[in-house]
Amino acid sequence: MANERPTRAERKAHGKSARAAVPLDSHRVFEPAPDRDPVGLLLSQAQSRVPELVPIRHGRMLVSPFTYFRGAALPMAADLATTPTTDLRVQLCGDAHLSNFGAFAAPDRQLVFDVNDFDETLPGPFEWDVKRLAASLAVAGRDNQFTPAERRTVIVEGARRYRTALREFADMPLLDVWYARLDIEKAMAEVGTQLAAKSMKRTEKALAKARTRDSMQALSKLTTLVEGRHRIVSDPPLIVPVEDLFSDVQSDGLYAQINDMLTSYQTTLQSDRRYLLQQFDLIQMARKVVGVGSVGTRAWILLLAADDGREPLFLQAKEAQTSVLAGYCGAGEYTNEGQRVVAGQHLMQAASDIFLGWQRSVGVDGLERDYYVRQLRDWKFSFPIEQMVAKGMAAYAGLCGWTLARAHACSGDRVALAAYLGKSDVFETAIAEFAEKYADQNERDFAALDAAVTEGRAQAQSGL
Known about the structure:
Elements: H1 8-21, H2 38-46, H3 54-61, H4 65-71, H5 73-80, E1 89-92, E2 101-105, E3 111-115, E4 122-125, H6 126-143, H7 148-170, H8 174-179, E5 182-183, H9 184-191, H10 197-210, H11 215-222, E6 223-226, E7 229-232, E8 239-241, H12 242-245, H13 251-266, H14 271-277, E9 281-288, E10 299-306, E11 311-319, H15 326-329, H16 337-348, E12 357-362, E13 368-375, H17 390-411, H18 414-421, H19 426-455
Antiparallel strand pairs: 1-4, 2-3, 3-5, 6-7, 8-9, 9-10, 10-11, 11-13, 12-13
């Protein structure tokens, strides 16, 4: 006998009761805990990372308050745990700042816009993703020297589009929600009237260039020919071939271990994609420093080739550590952190990379680590946040809000969420106030990390 499910009326009632328990207006609240120590939290993350790369992470965070925010997902998770919290749970991105949205190629070779970073994904209260997105808009708006009124317009638009999109999804058939996706070209046509002609033309040119960002382009940028074979160019500490990194380990043994890792990873792929990957041979592997918050975790690029070496494929294997949300939302159902990332990505994204998979491997130091694997580049494109004018960022915020709503509608109870958010603008008004308060806190935390470096409590290496 099938399990009884709540009726649509019961789901609506649950959303409204959640509003009574945690009023929409309460989302404006942010009162920093007196004993909060954001620098201490950041330093705690360094314990599991590559020691020589941690100063690069801090250096990248200290470029601006916005780059600090990008790396400070853990301090914000701790802060969000102190705010009014609903019981309306979804699959959270966990780090839904505006630079973690972007364009990439879907398997049908259409350019789509979606969330594109899931290192911290876990189930949790829906509003935590919304608040991180909103706060990122406030911080980025300050970095771009927008006026308070301009920032408010940007933030409200992102939260408003989230609310209205969820209400639209609540009335759609479930399968239609899962099939929905944001085609970037249609989206740009929609927002084009809100952008200056010059900005629109620059964006269109950048999107066209994104279609050239593939393994062939990576081959020309990251490798050189040595005795007729492509070899990854060493650029320490940002890119270091595995042979240079572990010079005391025999190359043959090292690559045998890497091939074992690839075989293990292939078992997590859909069968047809596993067959496709088996047509490629491993050529070389290198460690690569990626991102801001991710710096110090182990990330590898793998060069493979098919058809007598004429067709390259670059994969990226990125270490998956415990989510920053785990201490506040619970550990989740997956014991393999790579599987956690992949499962969250599949649940939240409208279309995912065909080579997205996971594996666990033992490193040369004898320690087990979890990884997720995907293509290094497949038309991937991030919008240049620092070049956005206020109207452009407001349009972009709307795209992010819609995209996040779709992801939450798939993984959570879209009917209860829509009932909770309601028809008024109370939610987005409260979120905008929270975002500005958190941007104030972010500036203080940015200064605290800078002071910690000056005092020697933390180390930072700039320019990398």
